[in-house]
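ok trying again, last paste got cut off:
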Amino acid sequence: MSYDHRKYAPFAPIPRAQRRWPDRVIDRAPDWCAVDLRDGNQALVKPMSVEQKTRLFRLLVDIGFKEIEVGFPAASQPDFDFVRRIIEDGLVPDDVTLQVLTPARDELIARSFESLRGARLANMHLYNSTSTVQRERVFGLDKAAIKAIAVQGATCIRDLAARQPDTRWEFQYSPESFTGTELDYAAEVVNAVIGVWRPEQGQKVVINLPATVEMSTPNVYADMIEWMGEHIEHRDRVRISLHTHNDRGCGIAAAELGLLAGADRIEGTLLGNGERTGNMDLVTMALNLYSQGIDPRLDLSDMRRIVETVEYCTEIDTHPRHAYAGELVFTAFSGSHQDAIRKSLARQRADEPWQVAYLPIDPQDLGRRYDEVVRINSQSGKGGVLYVLERDFGITLPRWLQIDFSKVVQHQAERTGGEIQGSEIRQLFDAAYVSAPVGWCIGDYSIRRDGNRVRLHASLDGTTLEGTGHGVVEALMDALQRLHGFKGVVEAFDEYALAAGTEASAMACVRIRIGEELSGGVALAEDTTIATLQAVLTAVGRQVGDRVAAA
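nice, full thing came through this time. structure:
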């Protein structure tokens, strides 16, 4: 078979006699570094233009990123031009650090420094590959030679930074393909670089430990990070950074567990764009923290702008089920989900923690609207239909009518095979219950109380109605029986005051039984009395109107 699992070797676990990270809880946001303009850009079929990069850079600044990797200026003229533009045009806030990536080659390092001339805060990000497969199959170099490359690059950076003293420099080193590197050797190379940069003398240093290719389960990655934290020299003077990829679909989980294991900083991209299956998704991870009551120190409240900008700059559509950002992630079509959301929202108070079924965070926090939450199709039930009527039209229905009308909506959804919009639901409701049959609209009427009895006098399509009863409904049913000879029973009757701003101020809903047949009627009017009279006439007319007309 060509599909044969035996060609792959399992990733070896990290021996850890006593893990500490599983007992920890994330209680604060990490330092964030957005790498959309470098790692994200190099993964695109069509790399971003300078205009697109500038638009995305402005978004990252507005969101609140204080560290932004802006390119690979030694390898790309457009990247170089972009870095120069944002510096020379004054687009970089004083508290934002520009980070650029460079291989460990002197001439490329020099070009990278040239791109950052005039920057106030800058991070020179050095990398070289250290993994077994890279050493043996790509470069054909032994461990000593690979370490020498890293040390030479670190030395070059130290010396060139001294020539640009107006910039406050931070140095960063990444042993590329860290997860494929022997841990003891990774620590050896990292410590050799740290020995050149001397963080104990005040030089700011970041050690980035990338899952350049995700090769293991997230818990193994966390073990690796915790081990490195124990073996990195001058750990208290060094920030450990993580840069996870998503080859196994676990990039976010690996970053979160890596934080538990002692990391200080996270690199990633908005919505996870990146090589192969993508980079760690900054939006998702930040909002995961937010949903746990932790300030992510990023402003993601305008999700629509974020999505539109990323899509424009990357020319990649966002999946509708993308966590937090997708069009449908806060949308419920299922009837049971809709009912639970409607009831939870009705009970949610502003002064208590968020507790709404099926909504892990409040959609409004991300600039989403509640009218996006419940949408109706053939899978929806009465709760969803009621929610849409309440939300869009201020109409509340009694339970019997919820059940009855939901069947009307479901039938329409099954017939069309698609989604039913709020306006269509209202049209269905009016057609099924509100629109009175021809000849069954109430005209002038008068009501007089005689002791405990009510006397009704009304006109109906030129015909006079007279009846008595203990209330208005009973009096009207008595008048209809006298006029047409049938006896009807009111099985359900509900009145509602409508919200301010609606055309009507009252609504009445009735269900009438005549013989074995049931029918419902609804009327919206300026007062409850006329709404009640019309609802009864509509329900009766729907059931016996044809027979009366024929007679």
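cool. The radius of gyration is 35 Å. The chain has a mean pLDDT of 92.
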